[in-house]
Amino acid sequence: MEETISLKELFRTLKKRLSLIIIITAIATATSGIVSYFLLTPIYQSSTQILVNQSKDEQQVYNAGEVQTNLQLINTYNVIIKSPAILDKVIEKEKLDMTAGTLNGQVTVASEQNSQVVNITVQNEDPNKAADIANSIATTFQEEISNIMNVDNVSILTQAQVGENTSPVKPQPVLNMAIALVVGAMIGVGIAFLLEYLDNTIKTEQDIENQLGLPVLGAITTINMEDDIKEQPTSSTLRTRGESVGS
């Protein structure tokens, strides 16, 4: 016999395990908030922009093919910027206590779409250090690229600066708590349905019909003898009532 699950049964299961779902969701959200606010280290971000081009003589006419070639070389420039040839010199200049591999993980290099502008973004626990590293990478690349490739026209468009009210880019406690809220609710609902699936005990007349396929002919109600005894008047009470009536 095929078992069918109606929406009414689903809602009944959710209502039955609602407290469990709320507890799991609250625990997940609170844990995410505590970790985001008190355990994770704030990370700040700073960016600079450079323009990479090949030098031109004053008499040289604008060449669209050359611009296209420069665009194709942008990916090469991005790799060079994050290479030890540049990062090692930055570490030496800024006296950083880290390896080139560690610094590489803090640096993101990306080019604007269909342009020769390269964005250099650095993330660090110190906002001032993040700006200093970004500017140092740009100037070091400007100094070293002529020795690496036939490029001698690197312009720094914008320098990385630290604002007055700099806020960390991560962690984002509100976003983390929102994600934890959704995930916690999903886990709570999943556990609720799992417990309901594993619970094969018979508690109601409807369970008998669903599990055994037999009609219910009658039911025996639960009788609480203690409450009935308390409600019945004692012999002393009856005697008192009789005396009061006789008098």
Automatic annotation (TrEMBL):
Keywords, comma-separated and alphabetical: Cell membrane, Membrane, Transmembrane, Transmembrane helix
UniProt domain Polysaccharide chain length determinant N-terminal: residue ranges: 3-93
Record field: transmembrane: 20-40, 174-195
Keyword Lyase among UniProt keywords: no
Compartment(s) where it occurs, according to its Swiss-Prot or TrEMBL record: Cell membrane
Pfam families given in the database record: GNVR, Wzz
Signal sequence coordinates: none
Tyrosine-protein kinase G-rich domain boundaries: 141-194
Membrane topology, record value: Multi-pass membrane protein
Family: Belongs to the CpsC/CapA family.
Matches recorded under PANTHER family: FERRIC ENTEROBACTIN TRANSPORT PROTEIN FEPE, TYROSINE-PROTEIN KINASE
UniProt-recorded name of the protein: Wzz/FepE/Etk N-terminal domain-containing protein
Organism field: Metabacillus halosaccharovorans
